[in-house]
């Protein structure tokens, strides 16, 4: 029985070390309330990061997810407020909002995917462009202010973020569901293998009968849908969207994917690793808030060190293979 | 949308009037250059600027206005250059995006003999502007601190939310700290919520995990107060007696007016200061009243009694 390599163990060890540090520094760290807070707040980035794992594995990248989430949140709020007089407060209007978010996410993802695969423009450039477009659109929709969900509607919709089943809140349940489905697709289905083949070597994949273009297009569309799902969880929390919603989510999601052992150049992805990456990043922030030991200004520095360490561990795997 | 309309209306009006009245005296042009509405406060400022320009064009037939909003310092420099080159402005009202890049172009406007009014953010070189209209960050902190002391005569434990690390934030927090000095109010913790709802929500959740008892919160900004309130509500804690925000967001003013015990007060840092600046500039151009110097707009305490005086339901902020 050989031990798994450091690239597999590294993130797990980091997570365990963080949990031990947190528990030592503050007695409330492992309380149900704190764990629930951290997991629920990780859910947005987490759900998006699962989709990002597929995009990156297939050799792509998406910088637009944070702005896309802000735009979808704004759109959702506008649609629900507009439908309020005719539908009233109830389940139908919530479903309408959710449907709006998922369709808008899918269309946004398809648009990115179409420009990247069919027109053959660099993913970095396309999504850099759409990142600016969505950020600008949400500012324009909100007229520079904040879009707020009608107060009565927000009260009705709140449980989607704050309540759940058996004390486990909805964002955590949805996040877990997305992770389980993502992990199965990545490691046990043809599509997961196609993603890795496409990211590893486009030409070889093409000659081995993998439809490279479709594989990539699906990965962007799926990421768009997941951004929509994350937004469905985000809107009931504060019931508002503004130009500052979802800023830097794309970089957090990409960082989580990399820490989890997925290769930035594509060809290898690990969904469960991504989850560990997301938890590591949010735990750092949580622990820094719970202690007076280190200035919270260093949050970014600590995260940066962990990202670089993760990549060093990846190189070791490459050398081994 | 509204701005473009104003802009086109102003352009048309000046084209039709040919920049002169029939009886021969000249129409004067005031250029207004402000940052675009990228967050709540700036959105409110844009609203008040457009409204003031519209109103003053009615009041002063001898004045024309050009309003431009810029999403970055570079565009703001271009806007000001265009105003000088194509509209021959007699006065400029400018809220600089950033002090350093805007100093040379505004200096050039002043050197050309036009009147210059600078709003809220000073330029890097002293003495360029004829009139300086600004908010009072020190006063903002002092008023907030004094209110806390009056509301908690027996002292108590509070947490403080800071904005984005800037001199503005430092001035406010230093003044607040000085105001609660020796009052028995104990600051458990200070953290940056970056004037952002989501960040503040997260920080407040962690504060609630960290401290078993928090008597009150100085959120120092209404966007941050919204995040703080959501976190308190979700945790179901009843130890927090009240949250003091700031800047006078309309939703919060409304809650204070309605007597919400969690939001008993607010402290102004009005985005409508742009209106003050445009008004004073118009007065200076059209009358013999001297308006040069510094005009510091005091931060005022809003309570239930006077809340409706500060409620602008049409403003985006």
Please give the structural blueprint.
The complex is a heterodimer of chains A (321) and B (317).
Chain A: H1 6-25, H2 32-57, H3 65-87, H4 91-117, H5 123-141, E1 146-148, H6 151-157, H7 159-162, E2 164-165, E3 168-169, H8 170-188, H9 190-200, H10 202-207, H11 212-238, E4 240-242, H12 249-259, H13 271-290, H14 299-320
Antiparallel strand pairs in A: 1-4, 2-3
Helix pairs in contact in A: 1-13, 1-14, 2-8, 2-9, 2-11, 2-12, 2-13, 3-4, 3-5, 3-11, 4-5, 4-11, 8-9, 9-11, 12-13, 12-14
Chain B: H1 2-17, E1 28-35, H2 40-59, E2 63-70, H3 73-87, E3 91-94, H4 99-111, E4 115-119, E5 131-135, H5 137-151, E6 156-162, H6 167-180, E7 185-192, H7 197-210, E8 216-218, H8 222-235, E9 242-244, H9 250-257, E10 266-267, H10 273-286, E11 293-297, E12 301-302
Parallel strand pairs in B: 1-2, 1-3, 3-4, 4-5, 5-11, 6-7, 6-8, 8-9
Antiparallel strand pairs in B: 10-12
For this structure, the quaternary state is heterodimer
Number of helices of chain A: 14
Helicity of chain B, in percent?
A: 40-55%
Counted beta strands of chain A: 4
Give a structural overview.
The complex is a heterodimer of chains A (321) and B (317). Chain A is mostly helical and 321 residues long. Chain A contains 14 helices and 4 strands. In chain A, the strands form 2 sheets. In chain A, strands 1-4 form a two-stranded antiparallel ribbon. In chain A, strands 2-3 form a two-stranded antiparallel ribbon. In chain A, strand 2 and strand 3 form a beta hairpin. In chain A, helix 2 packs across helix 12. The longest helix of chain A is centred in the N-terminal third of the chain and has 27 residues. With 317 residues, chain B is α/β, with parallel strands linked by helices. Chain B is built from 10 helices and 12 strands. In chain B, helix 3 packs parallel to helix 4. Chain B starts with a helix and ends in a 15-residue tail after the last strand. Classes of the chains: A mainly alpha (321), B alpha/beta (317).
